[in-house]
Specification:
alpha/beta; 5-stranded mixed beta sheet; about 15% strand
Length: about 180
């Protein structure tokens, strides 16, 4: 009797211990799964942060090569603008060059996105730039760090660009603010 009861008590404790071990193993596995999920999210966030912080010369090269290809296709004023900007000019005056149009403005917009652009002043009065070209130029201004003045000659307005960088953002991300002044 006593030996049988001892065996039953031993069996009971072994079963209870195994159940507790199994419960602990399940809890540990659950914690590990949550930790792995958190690690994946952190890796994704870090990847995004590193991509934003990392210099991206390939993007600059892509804008430049896109601009060159488009300028060569269009020829004329667009090619002249490309060569002038690409050559390191700080000013470009295309006043009255109506053949530039929206497509030529898009070439200039691509060049303005290049980090190696040194252009500070751009005169595009009477160049027949409409919505498509204007939108392309507007988008490019968010990338550009050097342009200080853009003259579109509409209604006698002169657009002066002031670049503002938020301290929490990488240096290469800037926003263009338009200050309208009467000529």
């Amino acid at each position: 009797g006593v030996v049988i009861q001892l065996k039953k008590v031993k069996e009971f404790y072994e079963q209870e211990t195994n159940a507790k071990k199994q419960s602990l193993i399940e809890k540990i596995n659950n914690i590990n799964d949550k930790a792995n999920d958190i690690q994946k999210r952190l890796n994704t966030d870090l990847g995004i942060i590193n991509a934003i912080k990392a210099p991206q010369p390939k993007i600059v090269q892509d804008f430049d090569s896109q601009a060159k290809q488009k300028a060569e296709q269009l020829g004329g004023v667009a090619l002249e603008a490309y060569n002038t900007i690409h050559g390191g000019a700080t000013q470009l005056n295309l006043n009255g060059r109506s053949s530039l149009g929206d497509e030529g403005a898009k070439v200039i917009a691509l060049m303005l996105k290049c980090e190696n652009t040194q252009l500070k002043s751009l005169d595009l009065r009477q160049c027949k730039i409409y919505a498509a070209g204007g939108i392309a130029l507007g988008e490019a201004l968010a990338f550009n760090k050097t342009l200080e003045a853009l003259d579109l000659g509409r209604l006698g307005l002169y657009l002066s660009l002031i670049h503002i960088s938020e301290p929490t953002r990488p240096e290469r991300i800037s926003y263009a603010v338009f200050c309208l002044k009467k000529k």
